[in-house]
């Protein structure tokens, strides 16, 4: 969730800017002081536009500190008004990585938690508050694990929660998301994975694979070959669903990382069964026999964006400050799979976190998908011909012809079997 950067030395490489944007994709901003006033620039266009503006400003002011921030939303609407840095009065700019839970910040408030904090609390402090150690302590206590950076018009900078970030080449970073584009975000002071089964995830994220000094549970299952809904598409689907009012304006949509084979099979199953489904788009479906609290009930819907149908799962009746929903990169419209997924989500009590339950339910659907895929193509009848598939002589599963390898024109094996059993079919 976001990255905050104090840039004191040089111009940051474009790679750092691009990685920061790709990992925190709801927009970015920077601020600096020319000695007379603080200049703030924000955009949600793209990394190239941001980098050009930043590079030009850095070239004209090479020796002054800059604040940079890249946002992924958790509170408040996704607008440029909620992008950092925030100007407090005329003489202080602030960026923040983390969350602040403040009394009085209602769900109906479109402002992010940081913006609310700046406008309702910090803006009312006496002049010169940014220099006060006591105020820094107050901010640190309110923010918990959060990290803040302040910059005033006199070009003084202060980091609150400095030890939770790190310095590199003379510049300070609140987390590692500038280093590479990855499946992780910084959430709740933890580096967490955007998907995958987990023993201790948060909001659909798993806790595995981060190469720093944080100590997290190990993922139950690691995915070596996964697919997901692209970030730009997630953002677009999220906006469409908000406009249609099927999710709340503060709710967030997260992509699940699905094993490639299961995603391929899921798409094939939906291609075959989807046309016969009577499920309506953008309509929440739930288990008729569900007898638990309505606000705890998991529902499912399908939505079509740019002629592609996706599955969205979540708890639309849950009254929270912000809700979390998960998008699957193919449509699940077959009754058996829908029932299995919702049954797992609503009644599985073994796993003690939201993400563990979501991912385990999806994992269980993989088995159904595999079984249905085999049942659909196992007889190799007219369906096989229509779909142009062939049976692998090794694993006895049907695959598209383009995915098959021929060995001396005698055996037909899928690419995985050809790799795993190299030499066996010679």
Side by side, the strands of the main sheet go 3-2-4-1-10-9
What is the oligomeric state here? single chain
Which strand-content bin applies to the residues?
15-25%
Helix content: 25-40%
The largest sheet, given as strand count, sense and whether it forms a barrel, is: 6 strands, antiparallel
The unreliable regions are: 182-224, 378-387
Short description:
With 426 residues, this protein is an alpha+beta fold. 28% of the residues lie in helices and 23% in strands. The protein has a six-stranded antiparallel sheet. The chain has a four-stranded antiparallel sheet with strand order 5-6-7-8. It has a four-stranded mixed sheet with strand order 14-18-17-16, with helices on one face.
Structure notes:
By secondary structure, the chain is an alpha+beta fold. The chain is 28% helix and 23% strand. A six-stranded antiparallel sheet has the order 3-2-4-1-10-9. Helix 6 (260-273) packs across helix 8. The protein starts with a strand and ends in a 6-residue tail after the last helix.
């Amino acid at each position: 969730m976001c990255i905050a950067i104090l840039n004191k030395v040089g111009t940051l490489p474009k790679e750092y800017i691009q990685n920061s944007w790709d990992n925190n994709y709801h927009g970015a901003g920077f601020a600096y002081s020319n000695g007379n006033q603080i200049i703030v620039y924000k955009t949600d266009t793209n990394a190239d536009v941001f980098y050009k503006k930043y590079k030009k400003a850095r070239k004209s002011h090479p020796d002054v500190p800059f604040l940079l921030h890249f946002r992924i939303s958790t509170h408040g609407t996704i607008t440029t008004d909620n992008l950092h840095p925030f100007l407090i009065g005329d003489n202080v700019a602030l960026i923040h990585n983390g969350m602040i839970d403040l009394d009085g910040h209602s769900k109906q408030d479109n402002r992010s938690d940081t913006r609310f904090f700046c406008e309702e609390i910090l803006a009312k402090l006496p002049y010169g508050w940014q220099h006060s150690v006591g105020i820094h302590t107050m901010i640190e206590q309110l923010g918990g694990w959060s990290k803040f950076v302040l910059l005033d018009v006199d070009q003084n900078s202060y980091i609150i929660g400095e030890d939770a970030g790190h310095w590199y080449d003379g510049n300070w970073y609140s987390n590692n998301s500038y280093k590479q584009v990855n499946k992780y975000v910084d959430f709740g002071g933890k580096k967490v994975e955007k998907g995958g089964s987990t023993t201790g995830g948060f909001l659909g994220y798993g806790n595995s694979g981060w190469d720093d000094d944080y100590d997290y549970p190990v993922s139950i299952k690691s995915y070596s070959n996964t697919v997901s809904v692209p970030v730009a598409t997630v953002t677009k689907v999220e906006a469409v669903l908000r406009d249609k009012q099927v999710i709340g304006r503060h709710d967030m949509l997260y992509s699940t990382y699905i094993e490639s084979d299961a995603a391929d099979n899921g798409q094939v199953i939906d291609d075959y069964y989807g046309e016969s489904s009577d499920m309506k788009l953008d309509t929440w479906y739930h288990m008729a026999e569900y007898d638990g609290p309505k606000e705890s009930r998991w529902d499912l819907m399908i939505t079509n964006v740019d002629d592609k149908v996706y599955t969205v799962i979540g708890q639309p009746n849950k009254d929270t400050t912000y809700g979390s929903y998960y998008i699957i990169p193919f449509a699940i419209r077959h009754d058996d799979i829908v029932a299995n997924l919702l049954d797992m989500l609503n009644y599985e009590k073994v796993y003690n976190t939201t993400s563990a339950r979501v991912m385990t339910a999806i994992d269980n659907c993989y088995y159904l998908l595999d079984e249905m895929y085999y049942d659909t193509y196992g007889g190799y009848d007219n369906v096989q011909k229509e779909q142009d598939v062939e049976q692998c002589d090794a694993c006895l599963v049907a695959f598209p012809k383009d995915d098959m390898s021929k060995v001396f024109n005698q055996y037909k094996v899928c690419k995985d079997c050809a790799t795993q059993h190299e030499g066996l079919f010679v």
